Each structure stands twice: as structure tokens, then as C-alpha cells.
């Protein structure tokens, strides 16, 4: 079976990330400190000046932790067949593939974070359970074609980006169409036309950087297809102002046969997204298989054992350790279904409820009511964080 490693991007950061990796790889940690001008270990583990969630610090921190995580992985003798990273994470995929050194990658990420942190008056929002075509139609009807598609995360999760005032204007149009619209806590219109000036400035450093041919296939955010060596520089520049085509990227890998995915670095955001992508992928494969069988039967012929006509084989599950599987199964047996969980939460806990999570050291505060995502997940959004939190992962402060 083939293997794919994926690296998360901004939004996955949390205090304490990296753990013992900095001590395990002291030479790379020292190089990072020299390039950044501060202690990367102290930032990630202690965040003494509350800077970890600031873009210019978040991006280098995630890059270093992702890179050290990969270093630890290959130290054990494992090697992937495919690499991919979401937005910032793509730099880790390229570094892992030998396109540039750890140091040169960090210099690029440092500059990228600085430029993106300067973006002002921008906004982003997650659109749930709606297709790209439906979103474009709503924006056109609202005369808000100034808003771009930023992230195609999964068939049921798409992020839009634009000027903050336009994002605010868009919300009632989506709500009128019974489409879930969740504003995100960002200051910039990332991955949109409004990042073109930053992309041009970033290009000055990119064009001075030496790139090598990838030793492992890396899937590009801007195309959803493997990187071509001649396009490395252009892809990195274009990525700032173009859509992250994550769903297409993962579908490309799934099309290559049986693949096991593993998320390296921090958190499990990509693992969840891949789960949603694979669910739809398998559903389409099943439908195509049924159609193929039906056609073969109507012709009086035996249906072929292998799927034909471009139908796809069922995908393998994302790697998950046995302990987590047992824990999740036990928890699910004793909790109500997602719809009931959402109803119970909203009756008992208003927006602004203080909660705690096993993954964070400090208290969190809800900024939305609980909601049902993807038809099956009970979730809520927190102040200061872009991604959703599963209701089963948080507890109200008593």
C-alpha cells in the first residue's frame, strides 16, 4: 500500500506543540533560532509574550514543528510515496521532498508570514454544505463578485475571502439560501486577489532561492496536481493569491490506488478533512460501480470484477492508532447522536460560554451556537480560533 504524509497550515498551532522535538534535534532548533532571532522552543512551548497566534510567528513555528516531526518520522526508516501540505504546510512538503533546505524553507516562511501579517481590512468565512458552483451563484446574485474562493477544503467545506465589509454583506445572502456561513477570525483576505501585492513582494525572495527537483511527488495547492520542477517558484508565489485546492489534491492521491494518509506536525485538522473527502469519494465510486453493474446486467453480460469507466476503488481509512480507536468507540457508545447533542448544548449553553479542552491550557469561549456540520458532526466555534471544535472535545467550565 502507498503512503502519503500531509502537513497542516495556519490554524493548527497551539501552545506546547513540538514537545521533545526541539531537544531531539538541537542542531536544527539552533539554526531556526539564528534565522528567526528568537527561541523557537520557547515560543512553541511557553508562548511567553502571547505571540503564537500572530501570523508572523505562527507560520515559522508551524514550519519548524512540522519539519522536526518529519525528521523524526524518517529517522525511523519510513518514507512516503506522496507529500502534500495545506497552504503553509506545502513548504514542509517541498522541504521533505528535497526541493529546498530546512534553512531556506524557513527563510521563505518567515518572509511569507511577515507579508501576510501586514494584510488589513480583509475577512474570510467558511461556507458549509454548499458546492463551489452554488457559492459562486449566490455571490453573483448578491453582486459580490469581489469575493474569491480561498480554500476548497472538502466538498462540504469551502472558505471564501475578500474585503471585510464585503464578507459582512455576503452573510445574509447565504443565510437566505439556507447555507451555513461562519465568519473566521482573520485580519487578511488570504488566498485571494487582495494578496497580489504581497505575492509580488514575496516573489523577490522566491526568485533568489535555489530549488531542486522533488525526490518525492508533491501535490500543489494551486493545481491539485503534482509539482513540476519548472513551476516551483511560480506555484509558491501564486499560492498566496489563489485558491488552496485541497479537495482536488487529495482526490488526485486517492486516484493512484490504495493509499494510507498520515498527518504530521500539529493536530488532526487535515485528518478530518481527508475523512470527509474520502467519504464522498467512496460514495461516488459506489454509485459508479452500481451503474456499471446495471449496464452490464442490461446487456446480458457478466459485470466485470474490476470497476471500469473511471470508477474509483474504495479508499483506505486515515491512519489512526488502536488506542484512539478504542477510546473514540467507547465515548461514542455513551453519548447521544450529534443532532441531539447540538440541541442539548444550545438549550443549556449560550454563546459566550467558557469551556475547557484537553488540547489547550487556557479556557476558551464559544462565539457561535452549537451546529451540525457535514450532516453528522456536533461542533461549535471559539473566539480567536478559525477551526471548529467538536462538542465531544470540550466541557463547560463549572
Molecular structure report:
The protein is α+β, with helices and mostly antiparallel strands and 398 residues long. The chain is built from 14 helices and 14 strands. It has helices spanning 21-24, 26-36, 40-45, 55-75, 89-96, 102-117, 132-141, 164-176, 196-206, 232-239, 246-254, 269-298, 322-333, 338-348; strands at residues 2-7, 82-85, 122-128, 148-154, 157-163, 180-184, 217-218, 259-263, 354-357, 364-365, 371-373, 377-381, 388-390, 394-396. The chain has a 4-stranded parallel sheet with strand order 7-2-1-8. It has a 4-stranded antiparallel sheet with strand order 4-5-3-6. It has a 3-stranded antiparallel sheet with strand order 10-9-14, with no helix packed on it. A hairpin with a 2-residue loop joins strand 4 (148-154) and strand 5 (157-163). Helix 2 (26-36) runs parallel beside helix 6 (102-117) and helix 4 packs antiparallel against helix 6 (102-117). The chain starts with a strand and ends with a strand. The model is unreliable at 301-317 and 320-334 (pLDDT under 50).
Amino acid at each position: 500500500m502507498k503512503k502519503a504524509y500531509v502537513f497542516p497550515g495556519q490554524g493548527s498551532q497551539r501552545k506546547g506543540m513540538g514537545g521533545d522535538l526541539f531537544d531531539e534535534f538541537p542542531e536544527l532548533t539552533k539554526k531556526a533560532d539564528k534565522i528567526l532571532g528568537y527561541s523557537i522552543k520557547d515560543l512553541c512551548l511557553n508562548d511567553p509574550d502571547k505571540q503564537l497566534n500572530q501570523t508572523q510567528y505562527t507560520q515559522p513555528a508551524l514550519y519548524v514543528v512540522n519539519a522536526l516531526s518529519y525528521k523524526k518520522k524518517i529517522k525511523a526508516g519510513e518514507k512516503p510515496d506522496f507529500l502534500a501540505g495545506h497552504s503553509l504546510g506545502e513548504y514542509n512538503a517541498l522541504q521533505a521532498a528535497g526541493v529546498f533546505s530546512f534553512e531556506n524553507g524557513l527563510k521563505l516562511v518567515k518572509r511569507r508570514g511577515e507579508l501576510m501579517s501586514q494584510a488589513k481590512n480583509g475577512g474570510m468565512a467558511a461556507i458549509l454544505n454548499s458546492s463551489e458552483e452554488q457559492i459562486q451563484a449566490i455571490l453573483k446574485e448578491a453582486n459580490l463578485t469581489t469575493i474569491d474562493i480561498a480554500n476548497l477544503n472538502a466538498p462540504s467545506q469551502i472558505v471564501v475571502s475578500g474585503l471585510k465589509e464585503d464578507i459582512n454583506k455576503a452573510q445574509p445572502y447565504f443565510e437566505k439560501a439556507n447555507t451555513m456561513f461562519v465568519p473566521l477570525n482573520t485580519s487578511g483576505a488570504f488566498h485571494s486577489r487582495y494578496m497580489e501585492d504581497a505575492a509580488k513582494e514575496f516573489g523577490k525572495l522566491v526568485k533568489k532561492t535555489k530549488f531542486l527537483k522533488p525526490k518525492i511527488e508533491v501535490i500543489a495547492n494551486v493545481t491539485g496536481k503534482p509539482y513540476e520542477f519548472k513551476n516551483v517558484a511560480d506555484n509558491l508565489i501564486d499560492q498566496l493569491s489563489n485558491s488552496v485546492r485541497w479537495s482536488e489534491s487529495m482526490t488526485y492521491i486517492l486516484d493512484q490506488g490504495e493509499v494510507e494518509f498520515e498527518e504530521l506536525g500539529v493536530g488532526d485538522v487535515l485528518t478530518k478533512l481527508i475523512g470527509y473527502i474520502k467519504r464522498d469519494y467512496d460514495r461516488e465510486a459506489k454509485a459508479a460501480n452500481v451503474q456499471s453493474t446495471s449496464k452490464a446486467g442490461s446487456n446480458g453480460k457478466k459485470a466485470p470484477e474490476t470497476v471500469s469507466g473511471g470508477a474509483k476503488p474504495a479508499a483506505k481509512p486515515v491512519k489512526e492508532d488502536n488506542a484512539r480507536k478504542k477510546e473514540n468507540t467507547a465515548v461514542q457508545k455513551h453519548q447521544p447522536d450529534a443532532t441531539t447533542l447540538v440541541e442539548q448544548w444550545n438549550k443549556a449553553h449560550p454563546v459566550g460560554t467558557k469551556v475547557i479542552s484537553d488540547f489547550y491550557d487556557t479556557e476558551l469561549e464559544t462565539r457561535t451556537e452549537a451546529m451540525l456540520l457535514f450532516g453528522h458532526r456536533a461542533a461549535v466555534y471559539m473566539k480567536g480560533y478559525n477551526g471548529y471544535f467538536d462538542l465531544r472535545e470540550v466541557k463547560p467550565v463549572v
